[in-house]
């Protein structure tokens, strides 16, 4: 699979599995899982067509590990980032002392005033390292990396979850826990 087709297919999968399964009339269960055969068949009707082997390659090689198969590879879902209501069945965990959030310079004033909101997503996404946060921030303009005092948040009773692809998730980050 050439890189251009792989990237286009990966973006299509993110869009369908995280935000708009109705685009191809795809059925997701309450945990966000889709039947792989149904996904392939319904995507073939779209201009995105791909084979199981190509899908497997995307899941295995995606640098952000956006997708996961079940054990026998008959079902697939996005690891996090959904704007649709699904239950990822995440278990609350204690985070490391600090996590990071990458954003664009243009968002700083609002974040420092209002905190980090999940907006249309199910959770706020936090990174374990500054490099990943920087990559996230670069997608939206000049990147700024914010340090989040997650130990203090946890001590204050705020829940954290770790997704399958090692992205830390929470519902909201109050500005009092954020530093530049």
TrEMBL record:
<comment type="similarity">
    <text>Belongs to the KptA/TPT1 family.</text>
</comment>
<dbReference type="GO" id="GO:0006388">
    <property type="term" value="P:tRNA splicing, via endonucleolytic cleavage and ligation"/>
</dbReference>
<keyword id="KW-0520">NAD</keyword>
<dbReference type="InterPro" id="IPR022928">
    <property type="entry name" value="RNA_2'-PTrans_KptA"/>
</dbReference>
<comment type="function">
    <text>Removes the 2'-phosphate from RNA via an intermediate in which the phosphate is ADP-ribosylated by NAD followed by a presumed transesterification to release the RNA and generate ADP-ribose 1''-2''-cyclic phosphate (APPR&gt;P). May function as an ADP-ribosylase.</text>
</comment>
<keyword id="KW-0808">Transferase</keyword>
<dbReference type="GO" id="GO:0000215">
    <property type="term" value="F:tRNA 2'-phosphotransferase activity"/>
</dbReference>
<dbReference type="GO" id="GO:0003950">
    <property type="term" value="F:NAD+ poly-ADP-ribosyltransferase activity"/>
</dbReference>
<dbReference type="InterPro" id="IPR002745">
    <property type="entry name" value="Ptrans_KptA/Tpt1"/>
</dbReference>
<dbReference type="Pfam" id="PF01885">
    <property type="entry name" value="PTS_2-RNA"/>
</dbReference>
<dbReference type="InterPro" id="IPR042081">
    <property type="entry name" value="RNA_2'-PTrans_C"/>
</dbReference>
<protein>
    <recommendedName>
        <fullName>Probable RNA 2'-phosphotransferase</fullName>
        <ecNumber>2.7.1.-</ecNumber>
    </recommendedName>
</protein>
<dbReference type="InterPro" id="IPR042080">
    <property type="entry name" value="RNA_2'-PTrans_N"/>
</dbReference>
């Amino acid at each position: 699979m050439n890189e251009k087709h792989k990237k286009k297919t990966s973006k299509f999968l993110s869009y369908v599995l995280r935000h708009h399964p109705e685009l191809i009339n795809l059925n997701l269960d309450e945990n966000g899982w889709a039947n792989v055969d149904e996904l392939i068949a319904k995507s073939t009707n779209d201009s995105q067509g791909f084979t199981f082997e190509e899908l497997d390659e995307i899941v295995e090689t995606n640098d952000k590990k956006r997708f996961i198969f079940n054990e026998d590879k008959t079902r697939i879902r996005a690891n996090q980032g959904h704007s649709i209501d699904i239950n990822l069945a995440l278990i609350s965990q204690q985070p490391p002392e600090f996590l990071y959030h990458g954003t664009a310079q243009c968002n700083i004033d609002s974040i420092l005033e209002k905190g980090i909101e999940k907006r249309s997503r199910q959770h706020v996404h936090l990174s374990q390292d500054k490099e990943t946060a920087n990559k996230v921030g670069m997608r939206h303009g000049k990147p700024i990396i914010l340090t989040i005092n997650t130990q203090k948040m946890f001590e204050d009773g705020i829940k954290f979850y770790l997704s399958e692809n090692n992205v830390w998730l929470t519902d909201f980050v109050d500005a009092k826990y954020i530093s530049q």
